[in-house]
Specification:
The chain is α+β, with helices and mostly antiparallel strands and about 475 residues long. It has 3 domains: about 1-30 and about 60-275, Thrombin, subunit H, CATH 2.40.10; about 280-375, PDZ domain (Pdz3 Domain); about 385-475, Pdz3 Domain, CATH 2.30.42.60. Helices cover about 15% and strands about 35% of the residues. It contains 11 helices and 29 strands. The protein has helices at about 10-15, 60-65, 90-95, 125, 260-275, 290-295, 315-320, 340-345, 400-405, 420-425, 445-450; strands at about 1-5, 25, 70-80, 100-115, 120, 130-135, 140-150, 155-160, 180-185, 195-205, 215-220, 230, 240-245, 255-260, 280, 285-290, 305-310, 325-330, 335, 355-360, 365-370, 370-375, 385-390, 395, 410-415, 430-435, 440, 455-465, 465-475. The strands form 5 sheets. Strands 2, 16, 17, 18, 19, 20 and 21 form a 7-stranded mixed sheet that branches. Strand 7 and strand 8 form a beta hairpin. The longest helix has 14 residues, at about 260-275.
């Protein structure tokens, strides 16, 4: 699987990153049913789908004229840590994760969602960036601030200081069907304002090791640099955001994926309102059913999401969900595959009560589950993780492992820094131990130290096992 982001060496590292899922997915292959007898009549479809008129072809010129002005290039500059090339997520969790940083430059795509400068792109495009620049279709460039990003859905929200900008019309994912024509606009290999087209190959496609939401699969040509760009329907409305491709060569091979726009907009709303996205947590490992498993559990045909494991102390365990249960409905809506269930969970809120229809012991049943909140690291407190937005810092408390490795009793970890902080010398992966000789025991200590906007700060940090002071001047 290859990220559809910029093609340079640093972005290749980002392309190779393993993605995390809140619950593990084991997706079984669907076995085909036996052929019907020669004279048997196939059952009528549940809903008659009218075919497109003969000779129907989307007006690609009109689509480009309407949507192109709202598609942007997203240019990123940052510093890559050598130890984070193979697994950046693990590198951020371990203490002293690098030896010698090196700069990188990359490019992805994005699209404008509000006239006052709100831009959407992929989280992995800006994940390691210290400076983000948005280039409009008229070639104007604006420095962008990252309002927030959500790695579980691969969505990031940017803000630029511009007004009266062209925007994309939002489409309806629930009306999208397999075989519908779609259009991709973006910057493949840095070639901005490029358009390509294809069809919807599948809906609700779950991808192990990628996002926690079901994706739209298409055969539209998507390449590195397309990430964050829009997937459009025939009316030039955005129905998804390009995220990744499956490829052996690293380039387009006919299988690309986009995050549905309803998921993207929900994440955007949460980030704009709260600075981050809160995800619901069920705590069950699920997999697809094949014909053999369905028969073993007494089903006439494979239908539902099979529970293969339940986490101890999870909401699923508290509700009585057990391995071997098959989830067949979510709040009354039928579940055919794991992707259907993930789609509903991706839009659910922590604390929400849901009804799960079950097939258990060869009979139907139902459970009510109160969903918890997903966290990326059990050692990390979501309540304490925060962004010191004025300084461009993303901070979190040190884990027990990091404190032990550093030989300290307290401190905070720098996950990300903006361009200003990077110029001052602070780097992602630094551990802040004190500010102006006052020990730092929590993120709140850092916020308190900068709240009064002192003219200067002296930060004692640990970098790769070396203690040093970093001076910083506040404007």
């Amino acid at each position: 699987m290859t990220r559809a982001s910029a093609p340079d060496a640093a972005l290749s590292a980002m392309q190779a990153r393993a993605r995390w899922l809140v619950t593990a997915l084991v997706i079984g292959a669907m076995a085909l049913a036996g052929a019907l007898p020669a004279r048997a009549q196939a059952p009528a479809p549940a809903r008659e789908v009218p075919a497109l008129s003969v000779g129907f072809t989307p007006n690609y010129r009109a689509i480009m004229r309407r949507a192109g002005p709202a598609v942007v290039g997203v240019l990123v500059d940052g510093v890559q840590m050598p130890s984070s090339v193979n697994d950046p997520a693990d590198a951020r969790r371990s203490a002293r994760p690098f030896r010698s940083p090196f700069p990188f430059h990359g490019q992805g795509s994005g699209f404008i969602i509000s006239p006052d400068g709100l831009v959407l792109t992929s989280a992995h495009v800006v994940a390691e960036a210290r400076q983000v620049t948005v280039r409009l279709s008229d070639r104007r460039e604006f420095r962008a601030s990252v309002l927030g990003r959500d790695d579980l859905t691969d969505v990031a929200v940017l803000r630029i200081a511009a007004h009266e900008l062209p925007i994309l019309t939002t489409g309806h994912v629930d009306s999208l069907q397999v075989g519908d024509p779609v259009v991709a606009i973006g910057a493949p290999f840095g070639l901005e304002q490029s358009i390509s087209h294809g069809i919807v190959s599948a809906l609700g496609r779950s991808i192990v090791g990628f996002t926690s939401v079901p994706n739209i699969q298409t055969d539209a040509p998507v390449n590195p640099g397309h990430s964050g760009g829009p997937l459009l329907d025939a009316s030039a409305s955005v129905v998804g955001m390009h995220a990744t491709i499956f490829s052996i060569s690293g380039g387009y091979q006919g299988v690309s994926f986009a995050v549905p726009i309803d998921v993207v907009l929900r994440v955007k709303d949460h980030i704009v309102a709260h600075g981050r996205m809160r995800h619901a947590y069920l705590g069950a490992t699920i997999q697809n059913l094949d014909r053999t498993l369905a028969a073993a559990f007494g089903q006439e045909r494979p239908r539902g999401a099979l529970v293969s494991g339940v986490a101890v102390g999870s909401p699923a365990a508290a509700a009585g969900l057990t391995a071997g249960d098959i989830i067949t409905a979510y709040n009354g809506t039928q579940i055919d595959r794991t992707g259907d269930l993930l789609g509903h969970l991706s839009l659910a809120a922590p604390g929400e009560r849901i009804r799960l229809g079950l097939w258990r012991a060869r009979g139907a049943g139902e459970l009510t589950v109160r969903l918890g909140e997903a966290t990326g690291d059990d050692d990390q407190s979501d309540a304490e993780e925060t962004d010191a937005q004025e300084l461009g810092w993303h901070l979190r408390p040190l884990t027990n492992q990091e404190r032990e490795s550093l030989g300290v009793s307290s401190g905070v970890w720098v996950d990300e820094v903006a361009h200003f902080s990077a110029q001052a010398g602070l780097l992602a992966g630094d551990a802040i131990l004190s500010i102006n000789l006052k020990p730092v025991r929590s993120v709140q200590d850092v916020l308190a130290a900068v709240r009064g906007r002192p003219s200067h700060l002296a930060l004692l940090i640990d970098r790769d096992g070396v203690r040093l002071f970093i001076p910083m001047w506040l404007e």
